């Protein structure tokens, strides 16, 4: 299969060059946000840090109690095929797993069969630096959902991003309920102090463990809670994520803090 579309998909044992008819009306990922996902950078038709992403995806399935196992080796094979199929060498893969189809209600049925969608899309344009606000929306550090990419827990991130755009910013730093900065809406937070030490919040602060951060061999990271004062007096502030990598951030004024 050779596709010329912007995005190619795998779903339900088949490969597609469009998303037509892929979502079932009673899929819990659609009706309840009951699922998880990973976003993976593709360079020269190879997935970057793939084993780390699949490990984090497996952990998310355990936390959400998606009991129907999905073989991570099978997902790796699908990604490899999509990379070979796509007409571009660089791109972004999104792996989405939902609990699958069910009747109405919240009860988890052990007979649910998880649904898997893997999509390969084009690599988005990137900026050499971004502007960020401190959002008024908070993350719940006590919730296990704050430490995984759960579909249903991203609404606050969406609203925080919308808030950032309303101030003319590119992203927003979200604090936890203790008022401490935890992460961006679409990435991890890293600060560089005046004496060139590097601090990033640990997952216990309400953020996802950063794969790009973990694989930064040129910096020695200190995982510790970060305060607003540390953020505002930092020599440099960075955002990291799988797609953009390390990007320098300029904080702009807003009322969110």
What does the model show?
The structure is a single chain. This protein is an alpha+beta fold. It has helices spanning 28-31, 50-64, 72-85, 155-166, 211-214, 228-232; strands at 8-11, 14-16, 35-43, 46-47, 91-98, 115-122, 129-139, 171-176, 181-184, 187-192, 198-200, 221-223, 236-241, 245-251. The longest helix is centred in the N-terminal third of the chain and has 15 residues, at 50-64. It is globular and about 50 Å long.
The N- to C-terminal Cα distance equals 50 Å
Describe the largest sheet: 6 strands, antiparallel
The average pLDDT score comes to: 88
Structure summary, number of beta strands? 14
Task: Count the DSSP helices.
Answer: 6
Order of helices and strands: EEHEEHHEEEHEEEEHEHEE
Integer-rounded radius of gyration: 19 Å
Low-confidence stretches are: 1-5
Shape: globular
Share in helix: 10-25%
Q: Kindly name the structural category.
A: alpha+beta
Which strand-content bin applies to the residues? 25-35%
Strand order of the largest sheet: 2-1-6-5-3-4
Task: Quickly list its features.
257 residues, alpha+beta, 6-stranded antiparallel beta sheet, 6-stranded mixed barrel, 6 helices, disordered N terminus
Quick rundown:
By secondary structure, the protein is an alpha+beta fold.
Topology (SSEs and partners):
Elements: E1 8-11, E2 14-16, H1 28-31, E3 35-43, E4 46-47, H2 50-64, H3 72-85, E5 91-98, E6 115-122, E7 129-139, H4 155-166, E8 171-176, E9 181-184, E10 187-192, E11 198-200, H5 211-214, E12 221-223, H6 228-232, E13 236-241, E14 245-251
Parallel strand pairs: 7-8, 7-14, 11-12
Antiparallel strand pairs: 1-2, 1-6, 3-4, 3-5, 5-6, 8-9, 9-10, 10-11, 10-13, 13-14
């Amino acid at each position: 299969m050779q596709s010329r579309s912007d995005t190619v998909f795998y779903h339900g044992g088949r490969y597609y060059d469009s998303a037509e008819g892929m979502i079932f009306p009673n899929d819990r990922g659609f009706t309840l946000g009951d699922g998880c996902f990973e976003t993976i950078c593709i360079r020269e038709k190879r997935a970057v840090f793939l084993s780390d992403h699949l490990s984090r995806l497996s952990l998310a399935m355990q936390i959400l109690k998606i009991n129907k196992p999905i073989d991570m080796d099978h997902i790796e094979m699908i990604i490899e095929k999509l990379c070979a199929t796509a007409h571009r060498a660089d791109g972004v893969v999104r792996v989405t797993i939902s609990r699958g189809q069910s009747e109405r209600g919240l009860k988890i049925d052990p007979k649910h069969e998880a649904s898997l969608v893997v999509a390969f899309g084009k690599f988005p344009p990137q900026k050499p630096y971004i502007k960020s606000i401190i959002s008024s929306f908070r993350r719940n550090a006590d919730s296990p959902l704050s430490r995984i990419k759960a579909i249903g827990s991203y609404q606050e991130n969406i609203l925080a991003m919308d808030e950032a755009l309303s101030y003319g910013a590119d992203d927003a730093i979200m604090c936890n309920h203790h008022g401490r900065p935890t992460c961006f809406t679409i990435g991890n937070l890293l600060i560089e102090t005046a004496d060139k030490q590097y601090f990033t919040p640990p997952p216990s602060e309400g953020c996802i463990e950063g794969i790009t951060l973990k694989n930064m061999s040129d910096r020695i990271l200190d995982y510790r809670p970060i305060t607003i004062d540390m953020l505002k007096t930092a020599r440099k502030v960075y955002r990291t994520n799988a797609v953009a990598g390390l990007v320098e951030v300029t904080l702009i004024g807003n009322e969110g803090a």
